[in-house]
Amino acid sequence: MIQFRAVTKKYKNDHYALKNINLDILSGEFVFIVGASGAGKSTLMKLLYNEERPTSGTVTIGGINIANLSNDKVPNLRRCMGIVFQDYKLLQNQSVYDNVAYVIRTLGISSREINARVTGALKIVGLHDKMNATPAELSGGEQQRVGIARAIVNGPPLLIADEPTGNLDPKNSMEIMQILDQINQRGITVIVSTHDNAMVDYFRKRVITLDKGEIVRDIQAGTYE
Hints:
Structural class: alpha/beta
Number of helices: 7
Radius of gyration: 17 Å
């Protein structure tokens, strides 16, 4: 499903964020991307949703080299994936329901279908009873659950989570990772970048380790170290 071929990302100050990355991620996999700060994790994730583009090499998703997409096609790419951020990125003046519905209201589907999708997504993350609350009324863990519901409401085949537990305590971190695991069990490809070694060790998924922009380890059912 996802291929990186000889991908290098170099910034103007001659800093290499990624060097000659070759990587395959199959449909339905759950993959942890780990490494120290500055190892290249966030850059790799941003290449997936076209926030950044490689200096050289190709990034292919579903047979399409997204590195060469014209700007007008990027929104269509992102509709085919869900993205979860460390800082939630919720609309503070909107309800939980409206935060999740926001991403599908432009698709021309009926109000009934929107309601069914939003309600279904909120049930998956355990927040169906808080759909009328605002983000300010939720804990950090609950806000991240809203972010996950928003990411899956359109039924994407790919979910990208960039440090999704970075602002959470261990209990909420575990709950978020369990939700991501459950989503993966529905057949959705899940890619998570994280510093959370306890979560990586607990779930024993595929672990890809970056160091100074290079892949130094790629192991199935792996641990952080």
